[in-house]
Amino acid sequence: YFTGNYPTPGGTKVCCRAFVLWFEGSSARCYGVSSAASCAQTPVLVIGHGGSEHALAWKLSQSHEVGCVYVAPGNAGIASHTAHGHRNGEHDDAEGGTSVREHAAPVILVDVPLTPPHFKEVKDFCRERSIVLAVVGSQQLLHEGLSDALRAAGVPTFGPSQAAAELDDSRAFSQSFARKLGLPAADVPLSPPPSSVANGGEVAAEVSILAFSDGVNFSIVPAATQDHRRCHDEDRGPISDGMGSFAPSPLVDHEMLKQIEAEFLRPVFEGLRSEDRPFVGCLQTELLLTASGPKLLAFRTSITEPVAQAILPLLDGDIFEVLAACAGSRLQGNLLKVRSDKSVVAVVMASGGYPGPFQSGHAISGLQRALCVPGAHVFHTGTTMEEEVDEENGRRVKPLSRSFNNNVSSGGVPFSQKLVTCGGRVLTVAAIGRSLHEARERAYVAVRAISFTDAFYRHDIAAIASMTATSALRARSRAASGKPEPEEHQFTYRSAGVDSEACNAALLSFEPLMRRTAPAAGGENSPKAGSSPQDMAHEIGNGVLISSASALGTKMKVAAHMGNFGSLGVDLVALCVNDIAARGAEPLFFQDHFSTEKLDGHQAMQLVSGASDGCVEAGCRLIDAGVAELPGVFAPGGSDFVGFAVGMVAKGQLLPRRDLMVEGDVIIALPSSGLHCNGFSLVRAIIRAAGLEYSQAAPFDPTRSLGEALLPPTRIYAKAVLALARAGLLRGAAQVARGGLEHGFDTVLPPRLSAQLHADTWELPAVLRWLAGVGKVPCQELISTFNCGLGMVLVVPAAAQEQALALLAQLHEEPVVVGHLAACPAGAPRLEIEGAQGAWLMLPELGVSLPFPQVLSSLQDAWSVSRLRVMVLAGAADVTPMQALLNATKLPASASIVAAVASANPESKALALARSAGVKDIVLGGGRFHDEAGFVCEGLAGEAEAGAGGAGGAVGSAEQETAAADFSAQLDKDMEELQADLLVILDDVEPALLTQAFLQRRVGKVMFVHASLLPAFPGPSPVEAALAAGVCITGCTVSFAVPRAKGNLYGPQIAQESAQILAGDTAAALRQRIVAESEAQALPRALQLVASGAVTLRQDEDGYRVVRWAALSEDSTAARP
């Protein structure tokens, strides 16, 4: 059991690192050596205080030649970074890259006065500490001549002279120098001010090229960074100093680098040397890539951020050797190499208002969580310690760089101190990955783990570049045509069919009608806006009656799938009595009513039995149980279960006591048992789209079926809540039910107060974590739909916290302090949850966010490397289930991926859908199987007719055999080239078109959809046959296609789904309904079953049969053809 409870920070650091490596499957060992002796070995000094200096210090600390890295003045974040141990990039290679150092050199902050023009203190420090290399990162200090002063003192220095630095300092000199060299310039000003908005004549990508020089020779980093300077997504808003970068840029290849070297870099270095301004350092050339070639934007004479954070993790080799060679005028050959199998994405987190006015002093949380993300690094730009900020004006009052202390310590920042913001750009989060897509996902996982007030960042860094080539081409095509890129589908309650906003509006509209019935309007107990209309109070003598009514809703559907209704009665009782107890009232009695389309006595008995169990637990009576059979009101199999409860409380004990609530009151939560009863419409939509069955093992809990994992009953909190109320410890309580956690406090808190919760104080249930990942459910949607793991929230005085916790523990509850009450300004939200994105949607063990499940799959999901590649064979029909299949296989839970869609018809609707989704489309035989009349080979049509009706029929003429063989051979060739594991044939293609030999080679690997409920209406026209027969129900069947044997074409069935035939249906209308209602559900589900191995095809002496993995014996679920 790993606790992390070790006596020293170094021990904790090493053990944490070892645990992460072990969890990721790495066998690398971890060491934690930081001693005074190490400081005496090749000390290096980095001078500056920004994020680029942080990145340089981090990279230098990985060098085998460096004993320690001093940073002057640095920033508090660099010290915190060192103290918390994320220094050597151990995550970068956890997935199997090149090896890294077993330990890194310590990074030590020093307070050295940086006083121009002589910089005596810095020179003294370098002499006393025997600094072998000084790296000047601050452009301001370069301008003031620090590099010149250090070189004059004999200190090897990486950084251009004051004269060479003028290339960045002076706009006039930069423009004149560029014109003199004839450099092509962009139609925007060089070095535009951050607050300006450049409106140049050309709009294209901005890239940065880095070149290291020793004054004579230079070497180019063989990868460009692509930069995002606009503040807002889609390159909108004011220009900043940089909001994100990524490397390598796919727009700059080797040939373009050669062009840039010849047209820009070589002339610049030679021109500076000819003017007696030899450049020793790193020249960052910012270019605009246009249709007419690269154009100059600006020169930077030091590495800026976020370019530094994007390129330095990508460098392969010892950065110290490169910088020392430049400083010693001995740069030879090409020492600069990049890791060709890696990409880096860097995202800047800024203060609200940047690049304009902004506020400082906001606490930063989640840094350690972000550093758990594999390959992620957090570089600090505008951070300081809490005590170093003047709380009155938010300004820094104790600079790090104004005093020199010979007693240098590498202890870093104590864990108890808090980092706060003190700049416009606060942090740069960079992540390295095996692809640009993976790096981007990791970077944003880490970004979302971090939070501070008014934080903002761009959400589209590397968004287009990380797409596949096909997707990127499609996006650029859409951009050129003015068509928007379709958004990635995210499941929401509204998309599942529940409009919460409309429901809330309806409830508010009922308020005047409710008030009209109150005998004394305006009293404490009269209904108010935002209160639950089911939760009513009525005074009788010295007591108050409290009532609550509720319905069970969509959870009934899941129970019906499982055939288990026993716990639903407990759910219904809990929904009612929990509301009553939250008002301080004791439940008196409960009654229920079950309505159904067709009464099932056993089902009704299970429901009422559960209600009886719930009443016993709540301490109230079940006084009535009603039943109604309502054919025509409910759809077949439909039902609902409603309940009503009444409780009583003395007038003086009615809750909530809003008048007593004050800032600082503690919020205690009682955990839920799971989803309870809310959000099941969304749950069912996600499961349906994922093609999962309720009977299969839950992906998040393999010890139970998915249905069982969703059905734990709602907890009854009545006794615990009433015990607190009677002890005088409770000021308010609320059940977290309708409206999710977001609206849990609506009826409890006065308008002057809000609830401030801390998401890392409790665990989001595994089922919600999984749903969020599979359905890409936004965090805010979780909060507004589900209980998020909290079933009841309680407001108690801060002074009574321990007493309340002890009392709840005696009642066998597991209370958790989750937050407190705070002042609520007018118009502010009533609930704020700090760190929800990071704490909830991230796997704590790996630091991976589930809303970006591709990252998760690349680390731990076996399906990421074993997903079955599927080819879909489609016909010419305009109505097709292709989109539903594409959507389902894009979900992370899918065990398959559509590798290609093939058709003999070049105009196939399925091919068009594939192209729009970025999936490979194949026209079989280049179109030779199709002309305006259909298949060129009439023999194919004849073969299809011969195979109809489930009979193999005669083989037919030699011409027919040749046509079928030709078609099957072409399909087989395309599948082999694609390495497709499975073939899915849609209902507008006859499986009889495939030869016996083809099907024999791919037994169990070919499945098809037929537009009827087989064995009814086999053959080529099942829709027309169903209409002609006058039946009222049809549907679809997904079966295996097997070699014809004993006159049977259709193999064992995998899944079926019904569709209703309506009066007046035409063949076209009915087929459209079958595709939309039946095939769109059955086909993804069947594909998931086959691809995941849950359903397999077996052959014995009797023929073929389906075997389901959940079966206890083969014969128990065998379906024979």
Assembly type of the shown chains?
A: single chain
Fraction of helical residues: 25-40%
Q: Assign an overall shape.
A: flat
Strand residues, percent: 15-25%
Q: Mind telling me the C-alpha Rg?
A: 34 Å
| Biggest sheet descriptor | 10 strands, antiparallel
How many H/I helical runs? 35
Helix and strand content put the structural class at alpha+beta
End-to-end separation:
53 Å
Low-confidence runs (pLDDT<50, min 5 residues)? 33-38, 82-102, 189-203, 388-416, 467-487, 521-535, 843-865, 932-955, 1110-1121
Mean pLDDT: 81
- Count the E strands: 45
Notes on the protein architecture:
31% of the residues lie in helices and 24% in strands. The chain is of the alpha+beta class. Strands 6, 7, 8, 9, 10, 11, 14, 15, 18 and 19 form a ten-stranded antiparallel sheet that branches. Strand 26 and strand 27 form a beta hairpin. The longest helix has 25 residues, at 1067-1091. The protein is flat, with a radius of gyration of 34 Å. The C terminus is likely disordered.
